[in-house]
Amino acid sequence: MKKLNRWILGLFIVIIGLASYLVVEANGSSGQFISMSHSGVQHDLFEEHEEIYLGKWLKWTGEDSPVIKNVNIYTDDGQLLTENHPEIRINTYVDESLTTGVIYNKADHMQLISKYKKAENYQLKSNDIMLVFEIDLLNPTYQFNLDQFEIEFELNGRLKKQQLIMKNFIFHQ
């Protein structure tokens, strides 16, 4: 009888431990970025201005705050937009003040722009984030085929990726 009681007690402890682990794991690793704004700019602005800053408001749904490791941009054929693309360059930043919409006259907004943080290795400080795309159009005839961006982030020691759509990011007239 004592052996059976010990066996049942041991099994009960293992089941409780496993259930506790699964609950903590499920709650601790949940969360995703949700797009809260539509961002777009007219192509004509690039003819008058060298760089344009475009803000995109995102909301993080998890309880734990991730570290954004990298932001990658992809074309509609699935190709990664690289740093040395001959027609367009895009750098990503975070605006902690959450105020960037569209900035096309850099000189008038240097105080705000100088406070941007690099998106790479950025620790989220709140559930709201303004991701800023600094766009430098090198070829005025570039056909905008940017389809989505991917956020690589680390949460509870695990590296994760999430894609978000960026259709109609830059409009032609």
Written overview of the protein:
With 173 residues, this protein is an alpha+beta fold. It folds into two domains: 1-30; 33-171, Immunoglobulin-like (Sandwich). 20% of the residues lie in helices and 39% in strands. The protein has three helices and twelve strands, in the order αββαββββαββββββ. Strands 1, 3, 5, 6, 7 and 9 form a six-stranded antiparallel beta sheet that branches. A four-stranded antiparallel beta sheet has the order 8-4-10-11, with no helix packed on it. The longest helix is centred in the first third of the chain and has 27 residues, at 2-28. It is elongated and about 85 Å long.
Task: Summarize the SSE layout with pairings.
Elements lengths: L1 H27 L4 E3 L5 E2 L2 H4 L2 E10 L6 E9 L12 E8 L6 E2 L6 H4 L3 E2 L3 E2 L4 E10 L8 E10 L2 E8 L4 E2 L2
CATH topology of the largest domain: Immunoglobulin-like
Strand content: 35-45%
Q: Segments where pLDDT lies below 50 for 5+ residues?
A: none
CATH architecture of the largest domain: Sandwich
Helical proportion, percent range: 10-25%
**What is the total domain count?**
2
Order of helices and strands: HEEHEEEEHEEEEEE
Largest sheet: 6 strands, antiparallel
Number of helices: 3
Query: What would you report as the Rg, rounded to the nearest angstrom?
Result: 22 Å
Q: Which class do the helix and strand fractions yield? A: alpha+beta
Indicate the mean pLDDT. 85
